[in-house]
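For the sake of clarity, the format in which proteins appear in this thesis is described at this point. The fold follows as a row of integers, each naming the local backbone shape at the matching residue. One such record is shown here in full, so that the layout can be seen directly:
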Amino acid sequence: MYRIVFHIYILYNLDENMNLNKANHIKANRISTPQSQKGLEFNIMYKKNSENSPNTSNTNKKLKRVKMYTDGACSGNPGPGGYCAILIYNEHEKVISGGEADTTNNRMELMGAIAGLEALREPCSVDLYSDSKYLVDGISKGWAASWKRRGWIKSDKKPALNPDLWDRILHLLEVHDVTLHWVKGHSDNKYNNRCDEVAVSESLKYAKINNDV
């Protein structure tokens, strides 16, 4: 199991009645910021409960701090798709990418995060940046964990999509301390833009394979 500490940086006025403490395992802190700034930045930090974590031997070990940018792309949705993760540790940088011939954009968004986290050889403290609300909300709002508890059934009684990938992500959150940042896509974040370019190039690669068949 993991504990969520939810930090919200409010960069413009929100409704004062907004329910920030809907779940008792989410702690929300508001921090005042300059009025000249606009938009929202969400930082969600996941902490393992030591009694349930498979990595209790690493509890007192200082974790390496890694930055990770991820993105996914799909042509047709469903159709050929690609994903990318850029890992940054000190001065080192690693790009991981891949794709599938028949997939969806949401699956590629999840695969970008999975590929990046699975590439880490030891438990790490990870700042993960994504422009996918599907990924961010699925975790920060507790949807994926709830779906799993209900046997991958949503609150509307319909089957949850992509349970195989969500299950892998929930496991990886038990291994690593992850702070998840939502960023605006196709904006001025150079790493997010690079991820998008690589993910699109992967999707085009698989589109060509489909056309050649």
About this structure: The radius of gyration is 18 Å. The mean pLDDT is 79. The chain is about 30% helix and 35% strand. Residues 2-212 form a domain with the Nucleotidyltransferase; domain 5 fold (CATH 3.30.420.10).
